[in-house]
């Protein structure tokens, strides 16, 4: 929906970067579906009051999250470890009641984090709208409701199970346009001393690294500590801690509680200061970002065109949601990238959204390696480089585009 107004403050948005028409980030499709493919105008705006960066238009949630959702969280070992550590930190924290604690996770996907609570015998509930991934969670012993979260869902949970000690979310809050509905639901669901702990890709990293590929249909918001503080302050809540994370190329974990219940960590003031220095509260920063994004596009297109002219074979590594933004914004199709290797069975045999590059299995990458591979999962670089030593040993080269376009030597 496009009202041109900030979803947080209701004030007019200032348009910043226009990416043109884009398909769904996870809309992998068969050739039969090319003609009816869905596109939306992808453009971000900034609100000078709430300091929230957001998509001006977002497709309806049912178009993006359904029983064929193509992203399964448990595709990376690193992420498995990350969510195990996240769960352990919450279990050890002062925030859980000593007796019969209750933890709720929004968008628990295949149960990658909650399974750690299930194993520890802690009362938990996942809320996951995409039925196929929720089914995987339930099969693994993670209690999961397949629903979109709202105030009325929160009321039903409280009636059936009581209020929660902690409300968790990872890579989910930034997906939900009705963010006020979520915060109202959180207020209903949490005990008075309950906490919200969530993490999402961080605006500061996106600006510093020109990682514009974090912008796609699902990510309606690009959060900063400033915008999160503004939003939750409207509901009598405050940031009590912030912890930066390596995941997804730079994320931030936010911890919030009712005002005055817990002391505010000095990390909050430090991050606010860093954000001011980076200009995350100012429109001029996004004009500089637009120029950097356009430069990145030019450089990637000219590198790939050059390699094509030299007769080199180029493939993509990992058909990420992020790659949908890069490919469509840069206009890169099968003439420049032969195929993309991906480990998700649901994506294999399909074509990438919009640009229609074939997605092939990882076995195909091993059997039929290209001269160059574009690392679309640059956020998993360490894990991937480690397991693909054979590719580089045999002369294969990696192309990375974040923070700058280059061939790794
Ligand atoms: P990855 C997802 O984005 C989607 P994506 C979501 N919208 C979100 O918010 C972000 O995460 C944060 C493949 N892969 O994790 C598997 C390999 O093929 O960067 C997956 O298809 N080989 C919820 O999609 C894809 O990458 C590998 O060795 O940008 C996942 O990409 C590895 C590690 C991954 O997320």
Give a verbal description of the structure.
The strands form three sheets. A seven-stranded mixed β-sheet has the order 6-5-4-7-8-11-10. A six-stranded mixed β-sheet has the order 14-13-12-15-16-17. Strands 1-2-3-9 form a four-stranded antiparallel β-sheet, with helices on one face. Helix 5 runs parallel beside helix 6 (179-189). The longest helix has 26 residues, at 284-309. It has helices at residues 61-64, 77-92, 114-119, 131-139, 151-161, 179-189, 203-209, 225-233, 266-278, 284-309, 321-330, 362-367, 381-387, 389-393, and strands at 14-22, 40-46, 53-55, 102-106, 123-127, 144-145, 164-170, 190-201, 221-222, 237-245, 251-258, 314-317, 340-341, 359-360, 372-375, 397-400, 406-407. 47% of the residues are buried. It is built from 14 helices and 17 strands. It is α/β, with parallel strands linked by helices. Ligand JHZ is lined by residues 71, 75-76, 171, 218, 248, 318-322, 342-344, 347, 377, 379-380, 383-384.
Structure summary, number of beta strands: 17
Class of secondary structure makeup: alpha/beta
CA-based gyration radius: 21 Å
Number of helices: 14
- Low-confidence sequence ranges: none
Distance between the termini: 45 Å
The general outline is: globular
| Averaged pLDDT | 96
Please state roughly what percent of the residues sit in beta strands, choosing from under 5%, 5-15%, 15-25%, 25-35%, 35-45% or over 45%.
15-25%
Q: For the largest beta sheet, what order do the strands appear in spatially? A: 6-5-4-7-8-11-10
Largest sheet: 7 strands, mixed
Helix content: 25-40%
Which kinds of small molecule does this entry bind, naming each only once?
Answer: ligand JHZ
């Amino acid at each position: 929906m496009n009202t041109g107004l900030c979803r947080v403050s209701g004030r007019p948005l200032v348009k910043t970067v226009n990416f043109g028409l884009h398909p769904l980030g996870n809309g992998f499709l068969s050739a039969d579906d090319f003609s009816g493919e869905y596109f939306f105008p992808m453009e971000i705006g900034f609100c000078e009051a709430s300091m929230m960066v957001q998509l001006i238009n977002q497709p309806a949630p049912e178009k993006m999250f359904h029983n064929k959702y193509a992203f399964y969280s448990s595709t990376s070992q690193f992420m498995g470890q990350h969510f195990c550590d996240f769960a352990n930190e919450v279990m050890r924290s002062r925030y859980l009641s000593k007796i019969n604690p209750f933890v709720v996770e929004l968008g628990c996907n295949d149960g990658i984090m909650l399974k750690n609570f299930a194993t520890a015998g802690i009362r938990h509930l996942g809320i996951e709208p995409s039925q196929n991934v929720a089914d995987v969670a339930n099969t693994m012993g993670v209690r999961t409701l397949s629903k979109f979260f709202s105030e009325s869902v929160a009321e039903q949970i409280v009636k059936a199970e009581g209020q929660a000690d902690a409300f968790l979310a990872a890579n989910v809050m930034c997906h939900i346009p009705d963010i006020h509905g979520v915060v109202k639901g959180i207020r209903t669901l949490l005990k008075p001393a309950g906490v919200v702990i969530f993490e999402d890709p961080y605006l500061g990293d996106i600006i510093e690294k020109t990682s514009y590929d974090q912008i796609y249909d699902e990510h309606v918001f690009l959060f900063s500590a400033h915008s999160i503080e503004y939003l939750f302050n409207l509901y009598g809540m405050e940031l009590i801690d912030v912890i930066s994370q390596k995941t997804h190329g730079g994320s931030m974990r936010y911890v919030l509680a009712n005002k005055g219940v817990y002391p505010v960590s000095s990390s909050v003031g430090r991050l606010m200061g860093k954000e001011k220095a980076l200009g995350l509260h100012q429109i001029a920063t996004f004009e500089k970002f637009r120029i950097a994004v356009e430069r990145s596009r030019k450089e990637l297109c000219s590198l790939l065109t050059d390699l094509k002219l030299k007769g080199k074979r180029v493939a993509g590594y990992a058909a990420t949601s992020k790659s949908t933004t890069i490919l469509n914004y840069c206009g890169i199709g099968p003439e420049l990238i032969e195929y993309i290797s991906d480990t998700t069975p649901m994506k294999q045999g399909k074509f990438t959204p919009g640009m229609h590059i074939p997605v092939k299995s990882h076995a195909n990458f091993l059997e039929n390696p290209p001269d160059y591979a574009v690392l679309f999962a640059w956020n998993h670089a360490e894990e991937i480089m480690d397991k693909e030593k054979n590719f580089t040993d045999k002369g294969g080269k990696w192309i990375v585009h974040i923070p700058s376009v280059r061939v790794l030597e």
